[in-house]
Amino acid sequence: MRIALFLAGWLGVFSLLPNTALADDDDASSSAVQTKQASPNADSEILQLDQAGQKLAGIQTQTLAEVRQTPEFTAYGTVLNPEPLLNIRQQFLAASAQQDSAQARYSEAAQNLNRTRDLHQQDIVSTRRLQEQQAIWQADKANLASNSYQQQLIAANSRLVWGDTLSNWFTKTQDKNATQLLEHRAQLLQITLPANSRLDPGVNVIHIHERGQRQTAQPAALISAAPQVDPVSQGPRYFFKCADCRLPFGTHITAWIPEGGQANSGVNIPQPALVWHLGQAFVFIKTDAEHFNRRALKQYSSNSQGYFVAGDLRPGEEIVTTGAQTLLSQQLKSLIPDEDKD
């Protein structure tokens, strides 16, 4: 019995030895892979990753080039329905047609009056007939003046609301800008600037987007200043025309307005290059073949290329454009103490 128990214990010990050795081998292999992929230096902002690890992580970089960008500020606006302008156009063109008709009647009455006056001088027609023709001429003259005043009134009311430029577009018989807006080949925008601000005299083009995405914003051309300020904010309003917009009427939009002054020097970085940790924006700079430095960005602004950075990055530096999030995850993972990884 004792011999049997001894043999069973002896066999059990040796049956456990291969599994224990195998587990130790797996841990050592895993540790070797992690060390090969990324090993942090004494500086926690620096990450080491060999060429094989970079290829596995899909790391891509680009060299930064200096650019100049005009500062911008944000404003908000709305896509306007041009129906009120269409009504003005219809009223003005109807009044114009009546004016033409009244002008034709007045011209005919003037000719008849001259002919009747000549006949009266030759005693061919009576004085009564001359007086009747004069009365017709006076009535047609008054009708012509009335129609002219009606046109002027429609145009004046339009300028009070829409300004000179839009009023001129929609009170012409043919105007390509009015036709584009009415045929929905362009859209009319109203942008409200912050109070106590104004559009710089040199600004003719702004960029707008309905979801506030600067990278995909579309250009809009200045039409004119609006005659009325915003009744709530007291900010000045401006009319713009967006040739590429196809938005529903009433859509609220964000606008980026160039500021006056000199352009700032900096660099453009693509949107995927930016990563966030604890509310702070970072980028990774490739300092040599296998080392990456995580750098915080204090100030950046969105633009059509991604982000514009002035001061925190220098032209000529090599920035990670693809795989930055992978680098951040690996760097944060390497900072976890060994006893917390179990």
Describe the 3D structure.
22% of the residues are buried. The chain is α+β, with helices and mostly antiparallel strands and 342 residues long. It folds into three domains: 38-69 and 265-340, conserved putative lor/sdh protein from methanococcus maripaludis s2 fold (Beta Barrel), CATH 2.40.420; 72-80 and 185-263, Elongation Factor Tu (Ef-tu), domain 3, CATH 2.40.30; 83-179. The protein starts with a helix and ends in an 8-residue tail after the last helix. The protein is built from six helices and 16 strands. Strands 4-5-8-7-6-9 form a six-stranded antiparallel β-barrel. A four-stranded antiparallel β-sheet has the order 1-13-12-11, with helices on one face. It has a four-stranded antiparallel β-sheet with strand order 3-10-15-14, with no helix packed on it. Helices cover 42% and strands 25% of the residues. This is Multidrug transporter. Keywords: Signal, Transport. One of its GO terms (biological process) is plasma membrane copper ion transport. One of its GO terms (cellular component) is cell envelope.
Cα(first) to Cα(last) distance is 43 Å
User: How many distinct domains?
Assistant: 3
Helix count from the secondary structure assignment: 6
| Rg on CA atoms, Å | 39 Å
CATH topology of the largest domain: conserved putative lor/sdh protein from methanococcus maripaludis s2 fold
Assigned CATH class of the largest domain: Mainly Beta
Overall pLDDT level: 83
Q: What's the architecture of the largest domain, going by CATH?
A: Beta Barrel
* Overall 3D form: rod-shaped
Assembly category: single chain
Helical content stands at 40-55%
Structural class by SSE content: alpha+beta
Main sheet attributes: strand count, strand direction, barrel closure: 6 strands, antiparallel, barrel
Strand content: 25-35%
Count the E strands. Answer: 16
Low-confidence runs (pLDDT<50, min 5 residues)?
1-43
Strand order of the largest sheet: 4-5-8-7-6-9
Q: What sequence of helices (H) and strands (E) makes up the elements? A: HEHEEEHHHEEEEEEEEEEEEH
